[in-house]
Amino acid sequence: MDETKLEKILLPVPAPRIRAREKKVKTHFWSKLRSFAAHVPFAEDLAAAYFCATDTRTPLKVRGTLLAALAYFIVPTDMVPDFIAAIGFTDDLAVLTAALTLVQGHVTQEHREKAVSALEAAKNPSSV
What spatial distance separates the first Cα and last Cα of the chain, rounded to whole Å? Predict the structure, then answer.
């Protein structure tokens, strides 16, 4: 994915647009991740980004960047359709990697621990 496309996706947006993205992500993120978790080797990073983006202690600009990457993940029509085996999530990974690089240090160990727990719970729904 070229740098211009990444910049366009992750460009800062006004607070109302961040809230709209947050609503969309909160509504659709977990169902999309559960559907594809076995095929997404970066599921833990996605979940950690989710917990950071929805953490009210995270600065709004950081939340906005992560929400943009997460919204891109849940959008059914992106540059490389997710159903294409092996390469379907490469664009999602590029966007997430760029976002995490921009906000490094804000995704805490607590967010990562929540991600691991949530993914384990998703694998074993009877343990919840």
Answer: 38
SS3 50: helix
More confident residue, 59 or 38: 59
Q: pTM higher than 0.90, yes or no?
A: no
Q: What is the CA radius of gyration of the chain?
A: 14
Q: How far apart are CA 47 and CA 116, in angstroms?
A: 8
Domain extent listing, the chain:
14-127
Look-up: residue for tokens 């950071």?
Answer: 52
Q: How far apart are CA 52 and CA 47, in angstroms?
A: 9
